[in-house]
Amino acid sequence: MTENRNAEVAYLPPAVPPTNHGHTTAAWTAMIGIMLGVAVGAVGMLPDVPDAVVWVGVVIVAASLVLGLVLRNMGLGQPKDGVTPRRSSAGH
Fold first, then answer.
1. Which of 40, 70, 78, 82 is the most buried (most CB within 10 A)?
2. Which are the contacts of 19, defined by CB distance < 8 A and separation ≥ 6?
3. CA 28/CA 6 separation, integer angstroms
């Protein structure tokens, strides 16, 4: 075989760490709460339904966002770059 002395050397960037694309307890809890709150708020938009039902939907959405943040800060969300998740010491 003929050796190609003019060939370029390809340098690849480091591999991207694996991600879970939001499949976490925090993400699922927040999204289910948001969908529930929007559904309650939509029911509140119907005729002959009190306006307070819309505000109940808004409160559910806000509470689910806060709960999602709390769960993420407890370690049940997507891990941050450069941070290793804590391991449970229950089995040791």
1. 40
2. 78
3. 53
